[in-house]
Amino acid sequence: MAVTAAAQLLDELMGKNRNVAPDEKVKPTDWRDAIYCKYYLVKLCPHDLFVNTKNDLGTCPKIHDEDARQLFQEVKNTDQKKLQYHVEFLRFCASIMNDLERRIDKGKQRLALMSNSTEAVPKVAKNNQEQINILSQKIEELETQAEQAGIAGNVEHAQGILKLCDQLKEEKDALLKPADRTQNNNSDLTQEKQMEVCEVCGALLIVGDAQQRLEDHLMGKQHMGYSKLKEIIDEISQLVKDTRELLYGPRISEKRSREKDSRKERSRDRGKKKDRKYDMDYEQAKTKTEKDEDSERDRRPKDKSRLDDRSHRRDSHRDREHRDKERYEDRHRNRDREKRKHRDSSHHHSCSHRRHKK
């Protein structure tokens, strides 16, 4: 990096053709050559804005050539390569400004945390002060009691009260020490609380600081650098917009803006569609579950009725079999009864006939 910086310095002092021999043909300058810094050709190189500050971007690796810049400025703005350089310049500056916005937000969050801590400190001090007041009142009462006991001649009782007073005084001293530290911390936090974040460069400023220090900050390299960079971004952005309107017409420029907005809208719509799809899937699953439950409830009475019919038919079949069995048994008993009756009758006639013969 040091060699590159020295070479650039020699180029500025002696020209970029300082090493060309007298009989050697000098190569003409072409601003499209990759060795030249695009940002320097457009307006300025951001690497030169914050030198020797905490936001120093370092040394630019490209060559800053005034002749190349002059040639670049002479080219019409409608040149596609020149338009591309402008767009790349805006993209690089946008990354720098995004870092600045994050630093500003971080500074505001830090001040907000300090503010919350400062608000919490008085509550703790107030609680300690209340306890200290209670202990002081108790100590005074006990000292009065000890004095009265000593006057009455009750020395042992007075000594016991004084020992209790000593214990309470120790507790009071223990509370007074943190209170002193809290008061010191409170003053420090109050001093830090009186700060604000610079909306231009993100630096922390003391509210109500001396006018000279405020002017030194406003004229500082960091504040001036970011302020100048914002002005250049607005200027080049308008130039790019006008160039695109000349090349493609206002409709194309508006179309690009609409496409950018539509991309954001599509991104939001994708999120909404995901949520909607999830809701639809949930509703479908819920509806299917409810239908299954309804069909299950409808099927239960049918199954029960079917089971009841089967049970009824089974019972009817058993009853029929039982009746048939009883009918068969009754028929069989009647047949046996008829047989016995017929046999008895035959036997009776036979006996009667034998008696008649005799």
UniProtKB/TrEMBL annotation:
Biological process annotations from GO: mRNA splice site recognition
Pfam families the UniProt entry points to: LUC7
GO cellular component: U1 snRNP
Family: Belongs to the Luc7 family.
Annotated spans, Disordered: 251-358
Organism taxonomic ancestry: Eukaryota, Metazoa, Ecdysozoa, Arthropoda, Hexapoda
Coiled coil region boundaries: 97-152
Amino acid composition bias (Basic and acidic residues), ranges on this chain: 252-268, 276-337
One Gene Ontology term of the molecular function aspect: mRNA binding
UniProt keyword list: Coiled coil
Cross-referenced InterPro entries: Luc7-rel (IPR004882)
Biased composition (Basic residues): 338-358
Domain of life according to the entry: Eukaryota
Organism expressing this protein natively: Diabrotica balteata
Protein name stated in the entry: Luc7-like protein 3
